[in-house]
Specification:
Layout (H helix, E strand, L loop, with lengths): L1 E2 L3 H9 L3 E6 L28 H6 L16 H23 L3 E6 L9 H12 L4 E8 L6 H10 L4 E9 L3 H6 L6 H13 L3 E8 L6 H13 L4 E6 L2 E2 L3 H7 L8 H14 L5 E4 L9 E3 L6 H14 L2 E2 L1
Parallel strand pairs: 1-11, 2-3, 3-4, 4-5, 5-6, 6-7, 7-9
Antiparallel strand pairs: 8-10
């Protein structure tokens, strides 16, 4: 029985003990695909105010950062959010699992889409927190710069630094269909630039995107491997209310991937991975009234049970 090289096993091998990621969601961050810089409305599966005018009308005018913002009136509040969120989650994990080391995970929206001085302040505040051994930064390939990567490379001399890119698909027709705002060449370019600086890369891949067949999904995994990613997250595309994808689904223009197909492709993807690439996610879902489809994405515990069984049948221990 082969063991899947999970991110947990990677951390235990490197640090000799468990290391957990602490997710952070910082006010004021957005995305160039939402604010109109590269596109409008965000990705078709993304829930945001630009596609929910009623929500936007009920909310007070908000301040959002971009790389050219001349000032950041939210900085002190953002620094406090880093401290509060990190403290709450790390203390809970320490109490429940006895964990002593953590990675601060800047998760929501595009976490390099701000002036460098703001990024430095937030990243370094996270690294000052007790037990923090590094950062994982979720972003888009069109929202990084040489300057940001150079700075992260300096940090990587003392800390564990990961950059998480949304690859989603290597097919430009798919990226256009989901209103991604950039092409696959852009993703490849910035993954390679990130790797050239010795930084670790986690690639996010979605199965079940509009118009894609099984071969295309697996080709995205193969290309991601070839581009040099160090870790991978895979999850199914699910439909939530108040998104452009929901409109297509309700009109019968989009059919979500079924559970059997998803699990089969996931197992095949695990087979494709070299031993050096760790696995950070094998599914996703949401169990609230916002989920429209597929219904099987509602119960993550059941999903994981079926995934583990399928992997075991294929000779893998997850």
């Amino acid at each position: 029985m082969k063991r899947v090289f999970t991110i947990g096993r990677y951390f235990r091998k490197r640090y000799g003990e468990d290391v957990y990621k602490v997710p952070l969601s910082i006010q004021g961050f957005t995305c160039p695909n939402i604010d109109g810089t590269v596109a409008k409305g965000g990705c078709t599966f993304c829930l945001n105010e630009s596609f929910s005018p009623n929500l936007a009308q009920k909310s007070p005018k908000k301040f959002y950062l971009n790389p050219e913002s001349p000032e950041n009136p939210l900085l002190q509040k953002q620094l406090e959010q880093v401290r509060i969120q990190y403290r709450a989650t790390s203390q809970r994990l320490a109490g429940k699992y006895g964990v002593r080391k953590f990675i601060a995970y800047f998760q929501s929206f595009t976490n390099t889409y701000a002036p460098l001085e703001t990024l430095k302040a937030l990243y370094e505040e996270a690294l000052r927190q007790p037990g923090c051994v590094g950062l994982s930064i979720g972003t888009r390939s069109d929202s990084v710069s040489e300057e940001i990567l150079d700075y992260l490379a300096e940090l990587s001399e003392r800390y564990e630094i990961w950059v998480e890119y949304g690859i989603q698909s290597i097919y430009d027709e798919t990226l256009e269909a989901i209103n991604r705002g950039h092409d696959s060449a852009n993703v490849r370019e910035w993954i390679e630039k990130t790797k050239d600086r010795g930084l670790k890369v986690c690639g996010h891949v979605i199965f079940g995107l509009p118009g894609e067949d099984e071969r295309m999904m697996l080709e995205t995994v193969k290309a991601s491997i070839a581009w040099g990613i160090d870790s991978i997250k895979i999850h199914p595309l699910y439909v939530v209310k108040n998104t452009a994808l929901a409109v297509d689904y309700l009109k019968g223009k989009f059919t979500p991937i079924d559970e059997e197909t998803y699990i089969r492709l996931l197992v095949e993807s695990i087979r494709l991975l070299p031993r050096s690439i760790s696995v950070q996610r094998v599914t996703a879902g949401i169990d609230d009234e916002s989920l429209l489809a597929p219904e099987w994405c509602r119960d993550k515990h059941r999903q994981m049970k079926r995934i583990r069984e399928a992997l075991k049948s294929a000779g893998y221990c997850y």
